[in-house]
Amino acid sequence: MSAVAALRNAETATDRAAARPRSVARPLLYGALVLCALLTMLPFAWVISGSLRSLDEIRSDPGAWLPHHVTFDNFVRLFATEGFGRFMVNSVVVAVIVVAGNIVAASAAGYALAKLDFAGKRLAFGAVMAAMMVPFTAVFVTQFVITVDLGLADTLTGVALPGVAMPLSVFIVRQYAMSIPDELLEAARIDGAGEFRIFFRIFLPLAGPAVATITIMSFLTSWNNFIWPLIVAQSMSTYTLPVGLAATSQAAAHVTDYGLMLAGAIVVMLPVLLLFLFLQRYFVQGISGTGMR
After folding, report:
1. What is the mean pLDDT of residues 9-30?
2. Spatial separation of the C-alpha atoms in residues 188 and 206, rounded to whole Å
3. Using CA atoms, how far apart are residues 102 and 163, in angstroms rounded to an integer?
4. pTM for the complete prediction?
5. Does the pLDDT value for residue 7 go beyond 70?
6. Which pLDDT band, with edges at 50, 70 and 90, does 190 fall under?
7. How much is the CA Rg of the chain, to the nearest whole Å?
8. DSSP string over 29-65
9. Residue-level pLDDT at 224
10. Rounded to an integer, what distance in angstroms lies between the CA atom of residue 184 and that of residue 62?
């Protein structure tokens, strides 16, 4: 009995020794995460503070974190700005085209690369991987020439076209599709279902997390895009929200209305934040399902 009691005491001491580092590491981990979160939120806090300050106050004390006199005049002037409604509508239209294109075209390409056998499959996947590595600045001249040749310059279609099937979206769907059992699709083929029916009725519902992921990423890319709309949109009637805000935030020659710009940044940020909060759970599942850790 004494040997058994000694053994139990030794096991208890070992468990306590093992639990002690864990009890210390957990608060340190949470503290580090909270610190990182606060550092990440600092720029957003300054943007919110700046949007509630007047232009004179921003110029006199640009580094202040809290407004001395809270005012909503920047938002009032923003919504009263000529063309603001048009900029908003243009951004929504372009974002809808880009998101819909990625859900259909990029998902179809990812499905084909993962579940179909065809000549040049490896070459096609290699082209997708290579396209992910090429920076936008290396191809935007070629994209602009093609857009002009197609007669899509200064149109919302031309603004949205390069983002309709992003290589990253194809890669995410392809990686997620690899985790879906082939037997499920083969059973549908045996029952007489065609590839289009399998794709829309079976694959897309199963690939919900991946679809949510590319929805968030494509919407974010389209909504915040500035360089490409600035190049293609040649009139205020086709400006998207970021380009329109940059064009109308000039209070005078070489003077920027920072209050108006910061209020516009809040308006631009809100749809992305709401979409992410709504699809956050599916976004995490999609990222973990593709192996992008």
Report:
1. 62
2. 14
3. 8
4. 0.76
5. no
6. confident
7. 26
8. HHHHHHHHHHHHHHHHHHHHHHHTS-HHHHHH-TT-S
9. 86
10. 60
